[in-house]
Please model this.
Amino acid sequence: MKPLIECVPNFSEGVQQEVIDQICEEISSVEGVKLLDVDPGKATNRTVVTFVGAPKPVIEAAYLAIKKAASLIDMSKHSGEHPRMGATDVCPLIPISGITMEETVKYAEALGERVGQELGIPVYLYESAAKKPERKNLATVRAGEYEGLATKMNDPDWKPDYGPDTFNAKSGATAIGVRDFLVAYNINLNTTSVRRANAVAFDVREKGRIKREGHPLTGKIMRDAEGNPLREAGKLKSVKAIGWYIEEYGLAQISMNLTDINETSLHKAFETVRECANQRGLRVTGSELVGLVPKKVLLEAGKYFLKQQERSLGITELAIMHIAIKSLGLDELGPFDPKKKVIEYLLEEDSARPLVNKTLIGFADETASESPAPGGGSISAYVGALGAALGGMVANLSAHKRGWDEKWSYYSSYAVMAQDIKDRLIQLVDEDTTAFNKILEALRMPKSSEEEKQLRSKSIAAATRYAIEVPLTVMKTSYESYTLLEEMAQSGLKASISDAAVGALCTHTAVEGAYLNVKINCKDFDDKEFVTQALSEANTILDQSGKKKQQILKTVNDHL
Model:
């Protein structure tokens, strides 16, 4: 897996679009970096930018963005609702894949050193990159904000990790860190009172509130034996929260950072805030995601709310996300498009899935063209996907049948199975064409010298082996549908069992079609041991598939 890191710098400018654009142009100018999201906020006067790429290009883009922000933003004239201490306030690096937290820290240190030396901006390292335990927490590093920075830097304990230890009036200071994926999440309240919003924030955030005797606001602070204030912990772990008023929206919000989404999920944060707000006579009206989120965040939320409704979970990703969006009120303040807010969707490239991204007509036309691909292998995978989809349809209809409410979870589990099989077969539609193209590429390799001949021969063998493995995988994956289709034919909604039969016909067609591809690709392959094993497995699956198909057709016909 290639190393991939995400960078989410926060710039202290959310009003002047021309400034934001110039900073983003610097990021986009670096080859190997993909700008995913730009999220400006007028009330906070702050813009959150998200980009990803290999480590070195990301660090270069981050440096250029910090440099441009330093030239365009004057912190001595800045004001906004969000805590801040610099033109580039924070610049976290997040390891996404193929790289460890420790390895990412090395890149943060290199970036911090360069920013400090070349730009003269004081840099503090935080979270996993912190050189001192007391600097791990960003809130501690940023305490006092820009206005208190000059005094803070006079304290030897707060000498920057990199850069000058003198106050930079124009650019302030920058915090560079390494952390896990953080979700910035705001929940909207039907109030304009910051005090009441803060009361809810203190109810839920991990560090809670200071304990007092008597009145919770004016009572005497309770202290431990050493004189430190005692605290009453909040309800949610790994959550930072404050209340604020957003003039742009005319309402107060609970502004939260979910620092460990495995500990506190989006829907858990929402539901807990809703409960605490209700106890204080307030109502949650919706919520807002700042920046991007991993796909699983919205999928888990959607599934949670579907379970609350006792509805089937075996629906498409986008349908599950639609439930999450509506349940969380993510579209209250403006349109919410998961294709623009989910990091995995933004990283997808249509070029990687040229067939499945076509329309039905486009797919049929491409198949009918003079090009040899897509061919029978891709069609087999697609027909198999349709077989699984039909089984899923029967399961979902059964889960929603009036009078079968106690069975919804049972049928939902089969619908989920159908979605999984269908999605894997959809992936194999393009994979079969990829396998065919690999053989063509190998055949076109030069063969002038003995070395070139050997390399070409090895490439042809590897491509042929892959071209056998792909349709064999189509056979295995399609065959999994029979578990689903058998059950739906026997106990699914009677009005739809004929659909289960058609699903079985599609599944067997997929198995038999892929079998023919396995056979033809094995025909001239000289790895006899591999061929023998592949054909033996394929023949077994084909034979069992025929029997399963006949059993399901008999079951359905007996009910018709």
Notes: The chain has three domains: 4-178, 183-347, 350-559. Residues 350-559 form a domain with the Four Helix Bundle (Hemerythrin (Met), subunit A) fold (CATH 1.20.120.680).
